[in-house]
Amino acid sequence: MRPITLSDYGQWAEVRTRNGEWLTKWEPTKPAGLPNFIGDRSAFALRCNARERDWNLDIAYSFGIFLDGNFIGEINMNSVQRGPFQSAYVGYWIDKKHAGNGYVPESLVLTLQFAFEEKKLHRMQVSMLPRNESSIRVVEKLGLRNEGLAQSYLEINGVWEDHYRYAMLEEEWFTRRDELLAAWL
Protein backbone atom coordinates (compact mmCIF):
# COMPACT_ATOMS: atom_id res chain seq x y z
CA MET A 1 0.00 0.00 0.00
CA ARG A 2 1.09 3.51 -0.79
CA PRO A 3 -0.42 6.84 -1.81
CA ILE A 4 -1.58 6.96 -5.41
CA THR A 5 0.41 9.29 -7.67
CA LEU A 6 -0.11 10.68 -11.15
CA SER A 7 2.14 7.91 -12.51
CA ASP A 8 -0.58 5.40 -11.47
CA TYR A 9 -3.19 7.04 -13.68
CA GLY A 10 -3.09 4.51 -16.53
CA GLN A 11 -3.53 1.47 -14.28
CA TRP A 12 -6.04 3.23 -12.03
CA ALA A 13 -8.19 4.37 -14.97
CA GLU A 14 -8.10 0.91 -16.57
CA VAL A 15 -9.17 -0.83 -13.35
CA ARG A 16 -11.91 1.74 -12.63
CA THR A 17 -13.23 1.54 -16.20
CA ARG A 18 -13.28 -2.25 -16.23
CA ASN A 19 -14.98 -2.37 -12.80
CA GLY A 20 -17.35 0.56 -13.31
CA GLU A 21 -20.61 -1.38 -13.22
CA TRP A 22 -19.44 -3.59 -10.36
CA LEU A 23 -18.38 -0.61 -8.18
CA THR A 24 -21.14 1.91 -8.93
CA LYS A 25 -23.75 0.01 -6.94
CA TRP A 26 -21.65 0.45 -3.76
CA GLU A 27 -20.47 4.03 -4.13
CA PRO A 28 -21.86 7.44 -3.18
CA THR A 29 -23.32 9.58 -5.91
CA LYS A 30 -20.67 11.83 -7.43
CA PRO A 31 -21.35 15.51 -6.66
CA ALA A 32 -22.51 17.61 -9.59
CA GLY A 33 -19.65 19.34 -11.34
CA LEU A 34 -17.01 16.88 -10.14
CA PRO A 35 -14.59 16.15 -12.99
CA ASN A 36 -14.33 12.72 -14.58
CA PHE A 37 -11.17 11.36 -12.97
CA ILE A 38 -11.29 8.20 -15.08
CA GLY A 39 -11.29 9.90 -18.46
CA ASP A 40 -9.14 12.93 -17.71
CA ARG A 41 -5.51 12.69 -16.61
CA SER A 42 -5.51 16.38 -15.56
CA ALA A 43 -8.53 15.81 -13.32
CA PHE A 44 -6.79 12.76 -11.85
CA ALA A 45 -3.75 14.97 -11.11
CA LEU A 46 -6.07 17.31 -9.18
CA ARG A 47 -7.42 14.30 -7.28
CA CYS A 48 -3.88 13.24 -6.35
CA ASN A 49 -3.03 16.79 -5.26
CA ALA A 50 -6.21 17.00 -3.14
CA ARG A 51 -5.38 13.71 -1.46
CA GLU A 52 -1.84 14.87 -0.74
CA ARG A 53 -3.27 18.08 0.75
CA ASP A 54 -5.71 16.03 2.89
CA TRP A 55 -2.76 13.95 4.11
CA ASN A 56 -0.78 17.08 5.03
CA LEU A 57 -3.80 18.56 6.83
CA ASP A 58 -4.37 15.30 8.75
CA ILE A 59 -7.97 15.03 7.53
CA ALA A 60 -7.79 11.94 5.27
CA TYR A 61 -5.32 9.28 4.18
CA SER A 62 -5.62 7.42 0.89
CA PHE A 63 -3.69 4.37 -0.23
CA GLY A 64 -3.56 2.39 -3.42
CA ILE A 65 -3.49 -1.38 -3.04
CA PHE A 66 -0.82 -2.91 -5.27
CA LEU A 67 -0.05 -6.53 -6.12
CA ASP A 68 3.37 -7.19 -7.65
CA GLY A 69 3.56 -3.50 -8.53
CA ASN A 70 0.15 -3.46 -10.22
CA PHE A 71 -2.72 -1.33 -8.96
CA ILE A 72 -5.71 -3.43 -7.78
CA GLY A 73 -7.75 -1.20 -5.46
CA GLU A 74 -7.92 1.55 -2.86
CA ILE A 75 -8.42 1.94 0.85
CA ASN A 76 -9.05 5.31 2.46
CA MET A 77 -9.29 6.78 5.95
CA ASN A 78 -11.76 9.64 5.58
CA SER A 79 -13.14 12.35 7.84
CA VAL A 80 -10.34 12.16 10.36
CA GLN A 81 -11.60 13.98 13.43
CA ARG A 82 -9.30 15.15 16.18
CA GLY A 83 -10.10 16.62 19.58
CA PRO A 84 -12.37 14.53 21.79
CA PHE A 85 -13.49 12.32 18.87
CA GLN A 86 -10.13 10.97 17.53
CA SER A 87 -11.87 8.93 14.86
CA ALA A 88 -12.04 8.20 11.13
CA TYR A 89 -14.07 6.22 8.62
CA VAL A 90 -12.61 3.59 6.30
CA GLY A 91 -13.73 2.90 2.77
CA TYR A 92 -12.27 0.44 0.29
CA TRP A 93 -12.74 -1.17 -3.08
CA ILE A 94 -10.92 -3.82 -5.07
CA ASP A 95 -10.71 -4.95 -8.68
CA LYS A 96 -13.37 -7.63 -9.09
CA LYS A 97 -10.83 -10.09 -10.49
CA HIS A 98 -8.83 -9.87 -7.22
CA ALA A 99 -11.80 -9.97 -4.84
CA GLY A 100 -11.91 -12.84 -2.37
CA ASN A 101 -8.14 -13.31 -2.18
CA GLY A 102 -7.57 -11.62 1.19
CA TYR A 103 -6.09 -8.38 -0.17
CA VAL A 104 -8.76 -6.15 1.39
CA PRO A 105 -8.56 -7.69 4.88
CA GLU A 106 -4.77 -7.41 4.70
CA SER A 107 -5.07 -3.76 3.62
CA LEU A 108 -7.58 -3.05 6.37
CA VAL A 109 -5.22 -4.50 9.00
CA LEU A 110 -2.44 -2.24 7.70
CA THR A 111 -4.81 0.73 7.75
CA LEU A 112 -5.88 -0.03 11.33
CA GLN A 113 -2.23 -0.30 12.36
CA PHE A 114 -1.49 3.05 10.70
CA ALA A 115 -4.54 4.68 12.33
CA PHE A 116 -3.94 3.45 15.85
CA GLU A 117 -0.15 3.31 16.01
CA GLU A 118 0.98 6.19 13.80
CA LYS A 119 -1.99 8.57 13.81
CA LYS A 120 -3.00 7.78 17.42
CA LEU A 121 -6.71 7.59 16.64
CA HIS A 122 -9.15 6.11 19.15
CA ARG A 123 -11.86 4.72 16.86
CA MET A 124 -12.13 3.45 13.29
CA GLN A 125 -15.46 2.77 11.62
CA VAL A 126 -16.35 0.85 8.45
CA SER A 127 -19.88 1.05 7.06
CA MET A 128 -21.44 -0.99 4.29
CA LEU A 129 -24.73 -1.81 2.67
CA PRO A 130 -26.47 -4.85 4.19
CA ARG A 131 -26.44 -6.53 0.75
CA ASN A 132 -22.68 -6.02 0.33
CA GLU A 133 -21.78 -9.50 1.53
CA SER A 134 -18.17 -9.20 0.39
CA SER A 135 -17.54 -6.13 2.57
CA ILE A 136 -19.31 -7.73 5.50
CA ARG A 137 -17.03 -10.78 5.16
CA VAL A 138 -13.98 -8.50 5.32
CA VAL A 139 -14.89 -6.92 8.66
CA GLU A 140 -16.18 -10.17 10.12
CA LYS A 141 -12.95 -11.99 9.19
CA LEU A 142 -11.10 -9.36 11.22
CA GLY A 143 -13.57 -9.47 14.08
CA LEU A 144 -14.65 -5.84 13.98
CA ARG A 145 -17.61 -5.15 16.24
CA ASN A 146 -21.01 -4.80 14.55
CA GLU A 147 -22.62 -1.69 16.00
CA GLY A 148 -25.92 -2.11 14.22
CA LEU A 149 -27.88 -0.70 11.36
CA ALA A 150 -27.89 3.03 10.58
CA GLN A 151 -31.01 3.92 8.61
CA SER A 152 -30.66 6.05 5.47
CA TYR A 153 -26.98 6.48 6.37
CA LEU A 154 -25.44 7.36 3.00
CA GLU A 155 -26.64 8.22 -0.47
CA ILE A 156 -25.47 5.40 -2.71
CA ASN A 157 -25.97 5.62 -6.45
CA GLY A 158 -28.77 8.18 -5.93
CA VAL A 159 -30.66 6.37 -3.13
CA TRP A 160 -30.45 6.90 0.65
CA GLU A 161 -29.35 3.49 1.89
CA ASP A 162 -29.16 1.78 5.28
CA HIS A 163 -25.68 0.68 6.34
CA TYR A 164 -24.25 -1.71 8.87
CA ARG A 165 -21.65 0.01 11.01
CA TYR A 166 -18.62 -1.91 12.24
CA ALA A 167 -15.91 -0.42 14.43
CA MET A 168 -12.71 -1.06 16.30
CA LEU A 169 -11.35 0.94 19.21
CA GLU A 170 -7.71 1.60 19.97
CA GLU A 171 -7.91 -0.69 23.02
CA GLU A 172 -9.31 -3.50 20.88
CA TRP A 173 -6.51 -3.02 18.36
CA PHE A 174 -3.77 -3.30 20.96
CA THR A 175 -5.44 -6.35 22.52
CA ARG A 176 -5.70 -8.11 19.14
CA ARG A 177 -2.77 -6.52 17.27
CA ASP A 178 -0.39 -9.48 17.28
CA GLU A 179 -3.15 -11.92 16.29
CA LEU A 180 -4.28 -9.72 13.35
CA LEU A 181 -0.76 -9.03 12.12
CA ALA A 182 0.17 -12.71 12.28
CA ALA A 183 -2.99 -13.79 10.46
CA TRP A 184 -2.95 -11.20 7.66
CA LEU A 185 0.61 -9.95 7.05
Please tell me what the overall shape is.
Answer: globular
| Structure class | alpha+beta
CATH C-level label: Alpha Beta
Summed up, the helix count is 6
CATH superfamily label: Gcn5-related N-acetyltransferase (GNAT)
C-alpha Rg, in Å? Answer: 16 Å
Query: SSE order, as H and E?
Result: HHHEEEHEHEEH
- Largest sheet strand order: 1-2-3-4-6-5
Kindly estimate the percentage of residues that lie in beta strands according to DSSP. 25-35%
What CATH architecture would you give? 3-Layer(aba) Sandwich
- List the uncertain runs: none
Number of domain units:
1
Helix % is 25-40%
* CATH third-level topology: Aminopeptidase
Largest sheet: 6 strands, mixed
How far apart are the first and last residues' alpha carbons, in Å? 12 Å
Q: Could you tell me the mean pLDDT?
A: 94
Number of strands: 6
Topology, pairings included?
Blueprint: H1 9-18, H2 20-24, H3 41-56, E1 61-67, E2 70-81, E3 87-94, H4 103-118, E4 123-128, H5 133-142, E5 145-156, E6 159-169, H6 170-184
Parallel strand pairs: 3-4
Antiparallel strand pairs: 1-2, 2-3, 4-6, 5-6
